[in-house]
Amino acid sequence: xxxxxxxxxxxxxxxxxxILYMINNRRRSLPNSPSLPSxxxxxxxxxxxxxxxxxxxxxxxxxxxxxxxxxxxYIQLGRVPAVVVSSKELAKQVLKTHDQVFASxxxxxxxxxxxxxxxxxTFSPNGPYWRQARKICVTELLSPKRVNSFKVVLDxxxxxxxxxxxxxxxLETDMSDLIFAFCTxxxxxxxxxxxxxxxxxxxxxxxxxxxxxxxxxxxxxGFYYGDFFSEWVWPGxxxxxxxxxxxxxxxLLNAVDEIFDKTSKRKQPLGTGAFLLHGNEDFIDVxxxxxxxxxxxxxxxxxxxxxxVSDMFVAGVDPSTATLEWIMTDLARHPRVMKKAQExxxxxxxxxxxxxxxxxxxxxxxxxxxxxxxxxxxxxxxLLIPRESSDKCTLEGYEIPAKTRIFVNNHAIGRDPKLxxxxxxxIPERFQQEEDIKDFKDKxxxxxxxxxxxxGCPGYGFxxxxxxxxxxxxxxxxxxxxxxxxxxxxxxxxxVFGLAARKRVPLVLVPTGNKGYDFKS
Length: 521
Ligand code: HEM
Fold this sequence. Notes:
This protein is an alpha+beta fold. 49% of the residues lie in helices and 8% in strands. The chain has one domain (26-513): CATH 1.10.630.10. The chain has helices at 6-26, 58-69, 88-97, 109-114, 128-141, 144-149, 151-166, 175-192, 203-219, 225-228, 234-238, 241-267, 283-292, 302-333, 335-352, 359-362, 366-378, 410-414, 460-477; strands at residues 72-77, 80-85, 173-174, 384-388, 393-395, 398-400, 405-409, 478-481, 508-513. A hairpin with a 2-residue loop joins β1 (72-77) and β2 (80-85). Protoporphyrin IX containing FE (HEM) binds at residues 121-122, 134, 137, 142, 311-312, 315-316, 319-320, 323, 381-382, 385, 449-452, 455-459, 462-463, 467.
């Protein structure tokens, strides 16, 4: 920005606006689908952006529009034609029936910087590179066998998390902070073989990384002016978006570099303070091995390797943190449910005589599973699931051209009164059937905590065991209360509209040790 005088900026704004206006009027989007419902008040150049840009909660604005326009409608976001779907039937069509057509992500400016190309799994367009990266991710990094190999480390990290909570007993505690530290350390160990925070003095570092993540995740939603006029460079600079993206991606890559530095120390044979994964490979070890194999369709460069491992780290930490944050928020606001879930965990663990939660207890915790599932329904980490069509396709009789951005409104579908009675209430009992709690997905597409189809979350096994083990530990060892003077309805429930929808205001709770179920490190 410093290189441009305000006069030049203003002049280029006026000239470009005029050109854009002319082009916009010449080129109509979605020419083959004039009958798609669409909100009125489409303005020149910005299209429908003014309808939701100020509030910056597009999932809610789109839900309100769906009430008037129906479950499928078209909106023009600057230069980007987009379609929003808000019913389980349409979600199924996008994520399952026409999965192949909608297997790309929107191409957004921030992904080019943050995901180095993009060369990661999350943002790479559907093509040979993404297919290979995704295959490595599913068969090597996140396979059931690999997830199994990390369980011993997860057990240790849950214990470290419990000791941190124990040290805060009786005190108002920023649980968002402790949850983030737990997830970061565990995923750092899995990805890089080292913890992010080796000791408690490193708390500031964790807070800093959390702020970098939140910033990057917000930028990666692709809901900024710069992304709606991506053929032109100036809106990104003029609105300050491009400098923000550059700064955010630099901060993230610096943080990842710092962890890499630690890793290279670990690789030295006589390194001290090393934390070896019980002889297991971490993600970098695996990727280096795969890089050398001769059956790769596309060569894997060092930069690609870096992009994939950073992606696993970011895509793993924030959704797991957000999910845990919301589960504890929902439980703290609903003491009846908290008590019932605690009774279940305590009875299962007590019957085993182990005095601590172990992996084999988890499958017995059916009510806890229902609690987690209900919290995921109310607070999906992807409020809008973003896709892009690679070819033309028909949805509900409407023709959707190639290169249309599609948003599956996960937030609206999960709270649809036609699908759930009292949809805004936290009622885990709605998932009491054996069939309901066999996993955290919904076969009817009524809510999609892990997305779906070939672009669905490959970290399902990894994320779900992490969340369950941690919640079981927190429920077994501690009693929980909101801070003095704070009632259930005072808890701020706003989310950050980011790639993972974390809680906007940190969750503060007061843990208390329970004598019968004390945590002994
Ligand atoms: C509770 C934890 C988690 C939740 C709720 C979650 C949720 C999601 C969702 C909703 C998507 C988008 C899916 C779609 O577009 O259909 C996604 C994608 C993804 N997730 Fe997860 N996730 C979790 C944990 C993880 C973990 C632990 C990892 C890896 C270590 C991971 C890696 C990824 C990747 C790489 C993608 C992009 C996949 C692609 O575009 O091909 N996730 N996740």
